[in-house]
Amino acid sequence: MSTEHQRYSTENQSDAIGVYAAERGYQVIQTYSDAGKSGLQIKGRDGLTQMLDDIQAGKTDFNTVLVYDISRWGRFQDADESAYYEYICKRAGIEIEYCAEQFENDGSPVSTIVKGVKRAMAGEYSRELSQKVFAGQSRLIEMGYRQGGPPGFGLRRMLIDEAGNQKGVLARGEHKSIQTDRVVLVPGPVDEIALVNKIFRSFVEDSQSEAMIAAELNAKGIKTDLGRNWTPSVVRQILSNEKYIGNNIWNRRSFKLKKHHVRNNPDNWVRSEGAFAAIVDTGLFAAAKAIFAAKALRYSDEEMLDGLRGTLKAHGFLSGIVIDEASALPSSGAYQSRFGSLLRAYKLVGFTPDRDYRYIEINKRLRRIHAEIVESTIGGIEQIGGQVELDTKTNLLTINHEFSASVVIARCTQTRAGAYRWNIRLDTGLLPDITVVVRMDQTNETPLDYYLLPTADMTRPKIRLSESNGLSLDAFRLDSLKHFFALSRRISILEVA
């Protein structure tokens, strides 16, 4: 089931299956479920994947699988996909019975025809729902409401009620809790607004490149809205995003029915002009836009490809990030617009993207994030009165001269079945008292949660985490490092003679 607000809740399905089993004399000995998961693809369906793996490996103590109805396999756009998963079970000698269907799954011509129709209907339901959701989201955009995503430097998300009354600014990570509430963008702190305008003036009036602007901001110790260092691509995002002149733009990219990520033509963007209060003059924004357009038109196809070849030779691989960070090249968006896609541009310069190259970028980003988390951890401990000594060679933290801690970043990976995993290698050489494991989200962009693992309780040098790990490991899971900082708090006690 994909949401709690429908008749297909796991509880309702379980109850119906239980009644069916009792009536037929079955004993339910194992349950496979995918709560809160979309049925458009098998990716991420840990329950279904585990069941198929168990059946194919012969690790089952059952001979019949009870399914609520045909659509529970999934609302696949290819109706044959759910038929294939049912066939896998039957091939292994496992019978399939549907608890809420009005026919017996006995292999008769009638049941075969009905199943085919219902599988197609399940896919059609998703297509129709996708169209309705898109229409609803488009209407909200046109009304000036924000549809997800961080506000950006210099802006804030304001929560408003159904009548349009402001209820308060949403902090990072906060979301609306009432369905009828909406979110709009409002100007942020005055100093951030001034800095955004300075970025635009530096780019337009002083002819500074994105790299020069980013370097100047980093030299001053200024962080982005996400608390990170500035990069040319981040500066370019500010200079090219219409939200700074009050326009609400949506559907630049789409991922309909979870098939393919598509970069949409500007004609297909959904926009609402003047939806928010502008913090940048429209003339200044238009000047920046004209500079980007001139840069893209200034190069011929061959000149753009020659620059790409040089970057490939210098880095050994290509990606959107590499292109955006190269000051001598147009943006990755310019390559996509000129050649139709980045993959086609890569092909023209003789580069074939490989999975390993993406890992190089991820590792580079994780090294930067590791340094930022170590720095913020030291700051959090010192803020509550603790003392920290950092070994610059090993990054081992010694806190209050009492205990040591090591910070480990756990990168998110995905199995072939679509499940997410985090591999952790504990530092057995340094033997810290506590290992602070930062588990990254599915995009490896931001921390998902934290594990505080006492070395005394860890019996293995390597740990493999899944989305749910049981009490033996999840007892150490935290949503933030607040509790870890609390371990470092010390209160002085006056000695009375």
Can you put this structure into words, describing what you see?
- By secondary structure, this protein is α+β, with helices and mostly antiparallel strands.
- The model has no long low-confidence stretch (mean pLDDT 84).
- It is built from 15 helices and 18 strands.
- Helix 3 packs across helix 4 and helix 6 crosses helix 7 (232-240).
- A hairpin with a 5-residue loop joins strand 13 and strand 14.
- The strands form six sheets. It has a six-stranded mixed β-sheet, with helices on one face. Strands 4-3-5 form a three-stranded antiparallel β-sheet.
- It starts with 9 loop residues before the first helix and ends in a 10-residue tail after the last helix.
- The protein has four domains: 10-138, Rossmann fold; 144-292, Putative Large Serine Recombinase, Chain B, Domain 2 (Hect, E3 ligase catalytic domain fold, Alpha-Beta Complex), CATH 3.90.1750; 299-353, no CATH class; 358-487, 3-Layer(aba) Sandwich (Trna Endonuclease, Chain: A, domain 1).
- Residues 1-144 form the Resolvase/invertase-type recombinase catalytic domain.
- One of its GO terms (molecular function) is DNA binding.
- This is Recombinase family protein.
- It comes from Halocynthiibacter styelae.
Based on CA atoms alone, the radius of gyration comes out at 27 Å
Average pLDDT score:
84
Using the 3D structure, state the CATH architecture of the largest domain.
Alpha-Beta Complex
Q: How many domains is the backbone divided into?
A: 4
User: What does the overall shape look like?
Assistant: globular
Name of the CATH homologous superfamily of the largest domain = Putative Large Serine Recombinase, Chain B, Domain 2
**Terminal residue distance:** 68 Å
Strand content: 15-25%
The biggest sheet, with number of strands, parallel, antiparallel or mixed sense and barrel status, is:
6 strands, mixed
Output the number of helix runs. Answer: 15
Q: Please provide the count of β strands.
A: 18
Helix content: 40-55%
Text of the CATH class of the largest domain: Alpha Beta
Q: Would you identify the regions where 5 or more consecutive residues have pLDDT less than 50?
A: none
In the CATH hierarchy, the third-tier topology of the largest domain is known as Hect, E3 ligase catalytic domain fold
Q: Biggest sheet: strands side by side, in what order?
A: 10-11-12-15-16-18
Question: Structural class of the helices, strands and pairings?
Answer: alpha+beta
Protein name: Recombinase family protein
GO molecular function, one term: DNA binding
